[in-house]
Design a protein that fits this description.
Elements: E1 2-19, E2 25-44, E3 49-52, H1 64-76, E4 82-87, H2 98-113, H3 120-130, E5 143-146, E6 151-154, E7 162-167, H4 174-179, H5 193-196, H6 202-207, H7 212-220, H8 222-233, E8 239-240, E9 247-250, H9 255-264, E10 267-272
Parallel strand pairs: 3-4
Antiparallel strand pairs: 1-2, 2-4, 2-5, 5-6, 7-9, 7-10, 8-9
Bound molecules: 4-diphosphocytidyl-2-C-methyl-D-erythritol 2-phosphate and adenosine-5'-diphosphate.
Residues 11, 14, 23-25, 27, 29, 95, 97, 100, 131-133, 148-149, 174-175, 178, 213, 242-243 line the site of 4-diphosphocytidyl-2-C-methyl-D-erythritol 2-phosphate.
Length: 274
């Protein structure tokens, strides 16, 4: 039995630069892993089996990890017989990339197991064909992500700050949020150049970012607005990650945050960038 750590991610700003003919959107976002992990238990098995600890996450063929293994088999011609159990600690539908992280983690694991038949570039291409957030997880540190999530630029920056994340216990559906993007919400690439100059100081960055998907999410899920209003009332700068519903703050939470999250039945995660 082997145990793999599958980290979550947060988006530091997210803008939509284009609606693509294939129905996807070109985005402009910075992403960084954080120390909130699913644990993936893997052991040999006569047939591929995938299950998880969270009943809302599909088992078997519908699980993104199952799909990733099958795509790996199709691409390489290799047979991967594993029993995979995912201990879900990353909230589902939170904008924290849990499923994508699980898929990337298992792809990295099986590629290593078979002596790295795929280069990082090929893994990124394979990952992009399964889910838009998967390519990022093959990288480390702060990564600039554009395209539909398949164009990655290393920054050689790795933040060390503490971060706290509040999940309001209401999932946000990525596909649904993207479906609400209209042309008025698009951002011109030339208007984003200034963001690149802010990435050297994460506190400066989070004061100057927006999240177009987050604006849509908080219009449709009032509790996200409540979380944002709460952290801002307490003097913090809150930002929504990805298509939501989780809100993150750079820094450590005061006791009052703990108290409010318990009272509201919101999940509070005290993590750090990794
Ligand atoms: C919004 C982001 C930001 O990092 O993350 P999450 O909030 O999901 O964590 C990602 O773009 C989500 O990536 P991921 O969750 O892998 O999306 P996918 O499964 O590939 O796509 C789900 C659906 O979202 C829409 N989609 C996704 C990515 C993209 N660049 N444009 C899109 O329009 C499409 O309708 C697609 O069918
Ligand atoms: N291994 C998995 N872990 C989490 N979600 C999964 C997994 N496989 C499939 N899914 C589905 O993917 C969707 C998105 O989940 P997730 O990636 O956790 O959220 P987000 O896209 O908001 O970051 C959910 O509807 C979930 O049911």
């Amino acid at each position: 039995m082997e145990i793999l750590l599958s980290p979550a991610k947060i988006n530091l700003g997210l803008w939509i630069t284009e609606k693509r003919p294939d129905g996807y959107h070109n985005i402009y976002t910075y992403m960084h892993k954080v120390s909130l992990y699913d644990r993936i238990f893997v052991k040999p098995s006569p047939i591929l089996k995938v299950s998880s600890s969270n009943p809302s996450v599909p088992e078997g063929k519908e699980n993104i990890v199952y799909k990733a293994v099958k795509e790996f088999e199709n691409y390489t011609g290799l047979e991967v017989n594993l029993e995979i159990f995912i201990e879900k600690n990353i909230p589902v539908g939170a904008g924290l990339g849990g499923g994508s992280s699980n898929a990337a983690t298992i792809l990295k694991y099986i590629n290593d197991k078979f002596g790295k038949p795929l280069s990082e570039e090929e893994l990124i291409k394979l990952g992009a064909s399964i889910g838009s957030d998967i390519p990022f997880f093959f990288k480390e540190g702060l990564v600039k992500v554009t395209g539909k999530g398949d164009i990655l630029e290393d920054t050689d920056i790795k933040y060390e700050n503490p971060v706290f994340i509040i999940y309001p216990n209401i999932p946000s559906d990525t596909k649904d949020i993207y479906s609400k993007v209209d042309y008025k919400m698009l951002t011109k690439l030339e208007d984003l150049a200034k963001i690149d100059s802010l990435i050297f100081d994460v506190n400066k960055l989070v004061e100057n970012i927006e999240n177009t998907l987050g604006i849509i999410a908080k219009e449709h899920i009032g509790t996200i607005r409540e979380v944002l209003n709460t952290v801002e009332y307490l003097g913090y700068i809150g930002n929504i990650t990805g298509s939501g519903s989780a809100v993150y703050v750079i820094g450590e939470p005061g006791n009052e945050v703990d108290i409010i999250c318990k009272a509201k039945n919101w999940k509070l995660f005290k993590v750090k960038f990794i």
